[in-house]
What we know:
Strand content of chain A: 15-25%
Strand content of chain B: 35-45%
Largest sheet of chain B: 6 strands, mixed
Helix content of chain B: under 10%
Order of helices and strands of chain B: EEEEEHEEE
Number of helices of chain B: 1
Largest sheet of chain A: 8 strands, mixed
Shape of chain A: globular
CATH architecture of chain A: 3-Layer(aba) Sandwich
Distance between the termini of chain B: 42 Å
Radius of gyration of chain B: 17 Å
Number of domains of chain B: 1
Strand order of the largest sheet of chain A: 3-2-1-4-5-6-7-8
CATH topology of chain A: Rossmann fold
Number of helices of chain A: 8
CATH architecture of chain B: Roll
CATH superfamily of chain B: Beta-grasp domain
Radius of gyration of chain A: 17 Å
Shape of chain B: elongated
Mean pLDDT of chain A: 92
Low-confidence stretches of chain A: none
Order of helices and strands of chain A: HHEHEHEHEHEEHHEE
CATH class of chain B: Alpha Beta
Number of domains of chain A: 1
Low-confidence stretches of chain B: none
Structural class of chain A: alpha/beta
Oligomer: heterodimer
Distance between the termini of chain A: 44 Å
Amino acid sequence: MDGFDKYARQTALPDFGVEGQRRLKASRVVLIGVGGVGSAVLPLLAGAGIGEVLVVDCDTVSSTNLHRQTLYGHGDIGKPKAELACIRGCLMNPDVNVRSLNARLSSGDALFDEFVKCSLCIDATDSFSARMAISGACKKTEIPQIMASAQGYVSQMFLFGKGFYLPDLLAQDESAASEKSAGAPIFGPAAHLAGVWAAGQALRFLSGAEPEFNAGLFRHFDFSTGRAFSCNLRNG
Amino acid sequence: MTLKIIWGQSTRKSKGLTVCRRAALTIFMKIRLNGKDFETAEARNVLRLLEEIGANPKRCVVEHNRKALRPADFEGAELSEGDEVEVMAIVAGG
């Protein structure tokens, strides 16, 4: 079974199979941001046997991260997240090639050049300005993008592709440049739910279980009210 | 639609009687907003509704009668009695 025995409980899934596992093995994902959302995404991608994951983050671990950023512990405070996440990912599954890039988005071209080599981009950053830049780059390189986010008790996920990206949805506004969600209240499970949604969509798409990327999909859940919502913004 | 008399600021008590110098009849429209009843006197379209509830129209997803709207459509989406509107602020944290 191509050394895929350990994935037997996954390949047995309807629409998945060994062919789906081969597709995952051949996939390359760029995961930008390994904070609360990224902490849920990375173990699921690594465990599932994605071929290559490029982890990008420019931040270091702080004590206020730990309630939700479960990739890290107290001993990691002050250390770079990208490198730690890379080590954790490699330890979780040696089949997966996890690479790290300790970079800021403003370092621009070097990072965006990576996009064209990727099957999918997952944006798990923490500001509108970063998200607009990432989505603009995905649009330029025409790769599918999953944007997963959380704030307060709310989890959200958008799928972008087929010419529809975040800049097509949101007007550029001046306040975006200075805005950052860092420091805002955030419920750990809300961050993880967004990450689980993102990993689920990535694995379904990359394995071929869901070959059509449902660009325009928006999902929302509020832990404080229990209200769930989803729609497709492309269909209007 | 609901008609309500809105008493003006010049309402005062005089010899035990309430005297109102200025009053207006206002038409209130009842809609369902995020699954709850909501009455509005001002909002006749989605953009006005967002302003009334303090939502940033550049940062939200709106569904009007189960149809997703893009920001460019907010002003043209007219509201009627009984309409269902879902408004969700887009969040960027992680």
